[in-house]
Amino acid sequence: MSRTATLRYRQGIKWLVGAGLVTVAGIGGYFAYLFWFVEAAQSVSAPLLTIEPSDVSKTVSAGGTVQLGNQQSLKTPTSANQSAIVDRIEVSLNSPVEEGQILVRLRDPQGQSDIEQQEIVVQQQQLTLEKRQRDFTQAELNLNQARNKLEIAQANDTELQKTQANLERAREKLQEQKVELVNLREELAATRNLVEQGYLAENELRNSEKAVRNAEARLRDQANTIQDLELSLENQRLTRQQSLNELRDEVARQQLAVEDAQDAIAAAEQDLNEALLNLTKTQAEFEKNSLIRATSDGRVLDINVSLGDVLQQGDTLLTIGNPQREEVVLNLPTLQATLVEVDQPAKINTIGFIAGTYDGRVREISQVALDEESSSRSQQGTVKAVVVLNEPTGTIIPGSQVSVQIIVEQVTDVLNVPPQFIQERDSDDPFVWVVNEDKQLEKRPVELGLVGDSSTEIKSGLDNGETIASPPVDQTLEPGMTVTPLEESEQ
Predict the structure, then answer these.
(1) Number of other CB atoms surrounding residue 33 within 10 Å
(2) What is the DSSP string of 374-403?
(3) What's the CATH number of domain 116-275, 2.70.98, 1.10.287, 2.40.230, 2.60.120?
(4) What is the pLDDT of residue 30?
């Protein structure tokens, strides 16, 4: 190669090297731009949450009024026909009472008179029953006598048997006479032959003929005797059968008399039982109208009457309740009431100087909705429910207003997230933004479970300890974005 060519070759190499350096510098600048500017543009600050298991609850909230267990106001009996007068007050304010204890005594002279009249009716029915029992005893005696007569008549057939025996003997004798007649007739024939041959005299023939005639006469007499005995036997049988039928009819009549006597006793017993029941009702009515008793254990919360007061039907006498049990009476809207069931747990929240939260359970839920006029023009049906505190506080005053949260559905120790962290949760493909180890966002599909008041159960798609992000208000999240926690001041 010439010197000139060599110089040109070296000069071309320098140009190539220079161009390569320029190209490398440009590419480096481009990647630097991507690293510093584009990466900065895809970094976002968002609220973050680390997933931990906890409880998810769905509740029904309502306001209610506190009352003691079995709290009730005892009133003047509504069944009283006249005004009543306070005769005695057996308890004092705040005194303990037991179920069935007499609290107030009222005057009821009409009730005492009704009891005395009913006692007279009971005595009359008792006397009637005793007479019916005596009649039954006599009827049984008559029945036994009739049965004994029938048994004796059935067993006593001596005359019939005697006639039957005579008839049998007569028939036997008739057979004997028939045989005798046959023999005599044979002898007569033999004698006649001998007389005709001249071996015997005529008188022998006449004697044989006479013997035959006598035998025939005896046979006819015996046949008549048998006929008479058969007729007598038939008459005796008819007479005996008629007598037995009469005795059987008498037994049947006496049996009916016994049954009638039994029915009379049953009717008398029923009348007596009704009289006793009426007496019991009258006595209970008297006690109800004159003796006011405690319907359960508890304490006297209020006394509304004084000695000698004249009371009308329905007037309040006093109020009692059991301080060992505190409960809240709620009126739930019908739509919420359908979610509430007996024994569901509840939280009772009080306010004021005795503010606190207490645990309880639903004790009862009414099956009938009541119409109550709301503050608006429309009417909304409500359902009564009662929540009992698990432990009495001893501080909540009956009549206080409290708020109650009834836990109608709950899952415990499950992964869950607040609703703002779930994207498209009302669609078929809900997902959350998961922050991976590189602080970048990943779109993760999740399966939702129970939707609670403040969080939603995650059945699958997330693991314990993972971190998720919620989209900021002013920015949309995309996969691959780098995320940093949003400071409290920025939220």
Answers:
(1) 11
(2) -SSSSEEEEEEEEEEESS--S-SPTT-EEE
(3) 1.10.287
(4) 42
Q: Which residues pair with 443 in a beta bridge?
A: 433
User: What DSSP line would sit under 413-438, residue for residue?
Assistant: EEEEE-GGG-BSTTSSS-EEEEE-TT
317: exposed, middle or buried (Cβ count in 10 Å: 0-12, 13-18, 19+): buried
Residue 155 neighbours by CB under 8 Å, 6+ apart = none
Residues 189 and 343: their CA atoms lie apart, in Å, by: 125
Rounded Cα distance between 88 and 96, Å, is 18
Rounded Cα distance between 169 and 146, Å, is 36
Helix (H, G, I), strand (E, B) or coil at 348: strand
Q: Round to the nearest angstrom and report the end-to-end CA distance of the chain.
A: 76
DSSP string, 53-65: EEEEEEEEEEEEE
- Give pLDDT tens digits for 185-202: 998 888 888 888 888 788
Give the 3-state secondary structure percentages of the chain, helix then strand then coil, rounded to 5.
45, 30, 20
Provide the β-strand partners of residue 401: 65
Helix 158-197 / helix 202-290 crossing angle, nearest 10 deg? 170
Q: Which two tokens stand for residue 123?
A: 């005595």
Q: Are 369 and 335 in contact (CB under 8 A)?
A: no
pLDDT at 40 over 80: no
Q: How far apart are CA 423 and CA 292, in angstroms?
A: 65
Residue 330, number of CB atoms within 10 A of its CB: 27
Q: Which of 285, 288, 289 is nearest to 118 (CA)?
A: 285
Query: Which amino acid is it at 384?
Result: K
Q: What pLDDT digit, counting tens, does each position of 267-322 carry?
A: 999 999 999 999 999 888 877 778 888 888 888 888 888 888 888 878 888 888 88
- Residue 352's alpha-carbon distances to 96, 207, 300, in angstroms, are 29, 153, 26
The domains of the chain are located at: 3-41, 116-275
Helix (H, G, I), strand (E, B), or coil: what is residue 133? helix
